[in-house]
Amino acid sequence: MTKKERAREDRSAAIAVTAFPVFILVGTALAWIFPASFVPLGDYITQFLMIIMFGMGLTLTIPDFKEIAKRPLPILIGVFAQFVIMPLCAVLVAKILGLNPMLAVGLLMLGSVPGGTSSNVITYLARGDVALSVAMTSVSTLVSPIMTPMLMLLLAGAETEVYGAGMAMTLVQTVLVPVVGGLVLRYLLDRWIGYIAPVLPWISILGIGGVVFPTVANNVDLLVQMGLIVFAAVLLHNVLGYALGYFTGKVLKTPESYNRTMAVEIGTQSAGLASGMSAKFFSPEAALPGACAAVLHNITGAMFSAIARRLPTEEQKALESETSANPAETALVKA
């Protein structure tokens, strides 16, 4: 892919991240008002999940995986932290807020799935390390058929029956196969895929809508009763992920760009996958945290990136000191 094509893809992804919450909010409102029109979409949640993950696979390239070989330690630390911090935070938040078993298991599912596809763009907007972000998302996604069922069995099995083998097979079908398929297709047809790359984030957005809207349509009454507590639980879980992810990097004394990447990768989960898996293996009620997170994670991500962009990284400070003798160059660095 050329630099021009990559820049076009990045611009499209940035616009998509901004438009995504609006699309989900409008679709959610319509599903709330006209639920009968959206309920039938629930029969195709697995297909929508496959579309989301296939779109993600098409955005990956071989250089993304070379990054794993070049920097295995920070990537493994980040992925390990994600699969420790977010599930444990989900259990903690559920206990603090006194969530019922189905909402608690839905929040745990949200904490146990891999990083969200929007995390790479949020990292870019926050001036984080994009290559590290893509590598972490790729690794967490590829290991999710093992990690997600294992975490659900360990942390939810005592109170809620978990079908671990079925969950693993579903994740292989809906995550691993589409992602690998998209990656292979990108490798074989890289030049051609580059032309349609700006469209790929929008395909994933439509797929997430296909998961979230029937979830809302099937739970109108429950949302009236529990909407506020679900919102509070997802927000607290998300903020804890950002804070603990950032301070994990601080404790390990990694560069500021790494710390921002850790915060975004750990705090931003694959909400569409969480909602779809919860609906499939537990109940429509359990899918509510994932549906809520589909909107909320992008809003908090936009807020984080807006704040982070105002604070220079070490690399920016060093560059500013080098160009301080030339006011014109300094102005360009700060732009």
From TrEMBL:
The keyword Transmembrane helix applies. It is a multi-pass membrane protein. The chain crosses the membrane at residues 12-38, 44-63, 75-97, 103-125, 132-156, 162-185, 192-216, 222-244. Keywords: Membrane, Transmembrane, Transmembrane helix. It is found in: Membrane. Its main location: membrane. This is Na+-dependent transporter.
